[in-house]
Amino acid sequence: MSTTSPSLGRMSPPLVAPRVTQIVAKTLLWAATALTVGVLVFIVAFVLRRGLPYVTGDFLTEAPRDMGRAGGILPMIVGTLYVTAVAVAVATPLGLGTAIYLTEYTRGGFLTRVVRFGAECLAGVPSIIFGLFGFVFFVITLGMGWSVLAGGLTLAFMILPTVIRTAEEAVKSVPPQYREVAYTLGASKWQAIVKVVLPSALPGILTGIILGIGRSLSETAAVIFTAGSSLKMPVSLFDPARTMSVHFYLLAREGISMPKAYATAAVLVLAILVINATAYGLMHRFMKRFS
Amino acid sequence: MRAALVRRALQMIAFSAIGVLALITVFIVREGAPVLYKTGVGHFLFGGAWRPLEGEFGIWPMIVGSTVVTIGALAIGVPLALACAIVLAELAPPRARALLKPTIELLAGIPSVVYGFMGVVLLVPWIREHLGGPGPSVLAASVILGIMIMPTIIGISIDALQAVPRSYREGSRALGATEWQTIRMVVLPAARSGLVAAVILGMGRALGETMAVIMVAGNSVRVPHAITDPVRTLTANIALEMGYASGDHARALFATAIVLFVIVMALNSLASLARRRPRRRTRRPLWRRALGALSRGAR
Question: How far does the CA of residue B94 sit from the closest CA of chain A (Å)?
């Protein structure tokens, strides 16, 4: 923290009474906050109001017809779940392992800094670059083609920093006494981690995974070049798939069907709100437990 | 024996993030470098003509596009986001905070394509009618990006503000400063490094955003002269042409990605520097600081 003290020059009698300045400043700040929150809430409300009337049972359970002008989005829902599942299945062990290593095996130190810096950098890589990378590496070099697997692995790399960071926070916040008690009872280091630390850190770890799921759901640029944009129902890991975000993007950008675009957006936004709310709730409960 | 094995395995996993970063760097560079080499870095960066089919690759209009749009996004997003962060961290009563903070965090998850779509259906027609021009424009992209980066900036700024010790505020108030004077003269300066990091990360997010920008920016390869002119950003350039590019054209897109990657990495490093090393009051000479950093690294 810097400790710059207010310069004496500023202490000369102000032109306007400080109390008046304060009222003006506070009003402006609150107005800006209201505007910000208002815009964000408006976007969600607008999409849901326009889209939800078109979300029917058929829309959720039918295949699209005529490029998406009619029918539903079932293959996209399945594709999204499929790709996301692959991403989570790969990112969770990697992220959790990293977090355990960083907190339980090396406290502080050079290595921790390097790994954390790497994770931070990875978190800042634009999704389009993940898309390009996934395309040359998974789709072309490893010969996976546009597939659920290629898309899922690309997303796994993308959400890895989120999972690492939250898992690290969660594992770190488990009080050291928990481990000490486990050792006193004769547990090995690994047993203490698996039987004591991880269960206590579980809600925090889950939060990270759920946030990762949310990011996977909403991602477009990274999946469109790796999972493809096939309208068919994906069956195997090597089938191409179109996720809901990609479907929505194509519907809206190519002006295929506005009602279907709104409906897809509504489903997407609703899913993400539920997912993020779950993550937030879990995090809240977790933080309460250890503070 | 088993413990050593576990340790070894975990150590390998711990390097996964770095490994992925290295892998990405290697593959992007491997694909893009040939074109950079053939065209010449200077010509590639500052060339004004992008005619991929004739083998002419200059991304200057896109560099200008990304810069202009990012500056616009910051101009719109930063003041609002900082105000929001100040209110949430300093002014809001606990109950209002308990309602507003989760709301903003929930909304941070709205997919970027949805933001882009809002731009298409609401903002672009409004600009076309009231300000002239084709509609998709620097302005539209700036507004949409400005909104999109707000949750990022708000989140990190709140953390930075809350990290300022309570005693600073109490000391200031005890000296007779009003709440606002305390915020302006004590809390904000003390939190400056964190706030700077927040803005830099928001900048990175604006630069890297792709789909939303494609939907509202118009994408023509020209240096814009007015805020109602259409622009193409670096990210849009990649995403728009990747679908059909081949040969040198595709490699030129990877070269565009190299440029983007370098810029974003530089921004990230700046942000983590800003966050890690708050400004000192008395600046030590550069060589002392370098020595300090080296010895810290060795430890």
Answer: 15
Contact B112 A220 (CB under 8 A): yes
Residues A107 and A44 in one domain: no
CATH superfamily of B18-278: MetI-like (1.10.3720.10)
Distance from CA of B263 to the nearest CA of A (A): 10
- Same-domain pairing of A129 and A212: yes
Q: Are A231 and A67 in contact (CB under 8 A)?
A: yes
Residue A136 clears pLDDT 70, i.e. is over it: yes
Judging contacts by C-beta atoms under 8 Å, the chain A residues touching residue B79 are 32
| Residue numbers in B near A210 (CB within 8 A) | none
- pLDDT, residue B298, reads 42
Q: What is the pLDDT of residue A24?
A: 92
ipTM for the complex?
A: 0.87
How many domains does the structure of chain A reveal? 2
What is the torsional sign of CA B255, B259, B264, B270? positive
**Which stretches of chain B are DSSP H helices?**
2-14, 16-39, 41-46, 60-86, 94-107, 112-118, 124-130, 138-162, 166-174, 179-182, 188-190, 192-208, 211-217, 234-242, 247-276, 286-298
Q: Residue A85: inside a domain, yes or no? A: yes
- Residue B272: its pLDDT value, please? 80
- Same domain as A139, residue A31: no
Separation of alpha carbons B139 and B276, rounded Å: 34
Q: Which residue has the tokens 């937030």?
A: A280
> Which token pair is A237?
């890991």
Residue type, B245: A
| pLDDT tier for residue A11 given thresholds of 50, 70 and 90 | low
Q: Is residue A264 a contact partner of residue A76, using CB atoms and an 8 Å limit?
A: yes
Residues of B in contact with A160 (CB under 8 A): 16-17, 20
Walk along chain B (299 residues) in steps of 10 and give the mean pLDDT of each run: 84 90 94 91 90 89 95 96 94 89 83 93 93 90 95 92 92 90 92 92 93 92 90 94 88 95 90 68 52 49
